[in-house]
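Model it.
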Amino acid sequence: MNPDLDLGLERIIRAPRATVWRAWTDPSQLEQWWVPAPSRCRVDHLDTRPGGAFVTRLSDDGAHFGPHMDACFLAVEEPHRIVFTNAIDSTWRPAHPAPVAMTATITMDDHPEGTAYRLVVQHRDPEARARHSELGFADGWTTVAGQLAAFAERITAR
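Modeled.
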């Protein structure tokens, strides 16, 4: 991780890695934690393979959904690593995503308490990193990782 260009977070999720992986790769599960509550997510396309589409929509009222993520998976190594970028959209066209272009790498490793979950978001330059940080990267992505943990831990407890 390059501290001048990247942002990241780590946490332990008290659920098996397979459960966390499924929460990431099953559209019906991804919709339940992918955006900060109370906003809601709808998955339009989730093709978790290298070159596959990652398209989600966001709603603040649960009725009207607008664009959220239009990205492309770069690498998918089940059940360990997912890499996607919004710099290329789901149709492989170069994109100008708002608020910033990024490449996100999610890694999941076994841990004595469950899953070691790590996210690194790479940016083109320090200005993009700073803008992403100013727009609430820490709050937003930490909230979403917490929602993922709560979702996976709830499934595990059943």
